[in-house]
Amino acid sequence: MKRKALLIDVLSTLRVEKGLIGPLPAAAQMTGIIEDVGMPFDVIFAIAQEDGTVDTIIDNRIIPGIFESTLKDISPDIVLFISDAELVKLVSDVQTKAMSALPDAVFCISSIIANALPDLYLDAGFDYILGQDVFMSLTELLTKINTDTPPEKGIIAIPDSRETLDHLPFVSKKFFEKLKPQWTLANGDLLYYGIIFGSLGCTGACSHCPNSNYWGTVWKPMSAERIVAEIEYQKEFLNTSLFYMGDINFCPNKNNAVKDLTVHPKAVERIIRLDTLLTEKKLDAQFITTIRPDTISHLAEHSPDILQKLLKMLRFVFIGFESFNNCVISGLNKNITKDMMKKAVSVLEENNIPIIASFLVGSRYETWETLTETENFIMEELPSSTIPLLNIMTPFPGTRLFNELKQNGGLMEEDISLYNAQNLVFKHPIFTHEQLKERIESFYMRFFTERFTG
Ligand code: SF4
């Protein structure tokens, strides 16, 4: 008899409250793999609440009180979790409820933290941890479970040497049956979007970055042809022209070793090809994705024609500015300058592309003065449509930064549920956790008061 799988995608409670119902692209991609293996499956979107309860999202509405009974009704043989680094606590809350509802099921997780601290996760009841390549490893696990020859419990990490993601199956239509990924605009309008797992890895290799540490520092793109084919497929049932390209970096630099500001040739080639295909097919499609400010300023200076093609495709961009102080930025080992940031902002503003601007506050070189510089940049230089996100620098387990701090006794917290970009978990030369938290909260208060009252 064929086994049944359940994928539980834990959404960020904070983001859902703000109207961003954004499933993880890797979770979406996993459903294509499960379908490809031929295993029947279901998907649950879960929200962990502060009182310890777990809600479920159905038809984009939060439904309390049915999580455990739904799990029992589905009664899966294997339960799959995938987690972004900062969702550790939320995933752990959901996992506890799921394990008590399904005591006989096999539990599996894919996350950088689980890979870094496998004993913690195996002791917490997980049977399998997926390492890279996640999709190959998942295929292997499900195939073996389906044939009643389950692998030995522990980490499954089957490498994949292929340089593209074109072999990946499309995200399953079933992934979108209970939820349409949703973006709420400031005026209350709702935008629905599809999801495409457009590439894997980032050449940036930043020491604090959980994403490149987990997904790798070699950029493996899905080709323009494969992306367009999936856009056409998702358009058949999603009725949208907006797609979240779940790349951790849509357009990375070519070389990580020398921090060379040269855009990856495969990324340039993909932009050109995407532009051609979308035009030839008269396909109405725009993207939400993540790009670095130095990439935009570099293209503006050296390849304005490529930049124009890229801008045409973008509806919103996530940009990691991290800081507006040169010393802090170079402390993060980034070759970005304030001029590059200003250039990127002006290009995006001229093209009416709103920015979700993320900043990493509280890194080792941060001071009260550098924080003020960043705050002034947000208040004075970013367009009014920008959404700023101030994350506290977190040495996520598995990153080089974590290993360095652990080695020299710099970590203050053992409890990994506090490693969520909202807490200062390492010894800082200037700030305490409370001081930094208070500063961020008062900044948000000032920002939103000024934005909404003029
Ligand atoms: S450039 Fe961004 S995505 Fe790439 S490694 Fe650095 S922080 Fe991570």
Structure description:
The chain folds into two domains: 5-156, 3-Layer(aba) Sandwich (Rossmann fold); 193-453, TIM Barrel, CATH 3.20.20. 40% of the residues lie in helices and 20% in strands. It is built from 17 helices and 20 strands. Helix 10 crosses helix 12 (304-313), helix 11 (293-302) crosses helix 12 and helix 11 packs across helix 14. The radius of gyration is 21 Å and the shape is globular. Iron/sulfur cluster binds next to helix 8.
Largest sheet report: 8 strands, mixed
Q: Nearest-angstrom radius of gyration?
A: 21 Å
Q: Which molecules other than protein and nucleic acid are bound? A: iron/sulfur cluster
- The CATH superfamily of the largest domain appears as Aldolase class I
Tally of extended strands?
A: 20
Highlighted features:
454 residues, Rossmann fold, TIM Barrel, 2 domains, eight-stranded mixed beta sheet, six-stranded parallel beta sheet, globular, binds iron/sulfur cluster
Short description:
The chain has helices spanning 13-17, 25-37, 67-74, 88-101, 112-116, 118-123, 134-146, 210-215, 224-238, 265-280, 293-302, 304-313, 326-331, 338-350, 368-381, 400-407, 433-453; strands spanning 5-10, 41-48, 54-58, 61-63, 78-82, 106-110, 128-130, 154-156, 182-184, 190-192, 194-196, 199-200, 220-221, 242-245, 253-255, 260-263, 286-290, 314-322, 355-361, 387-392.
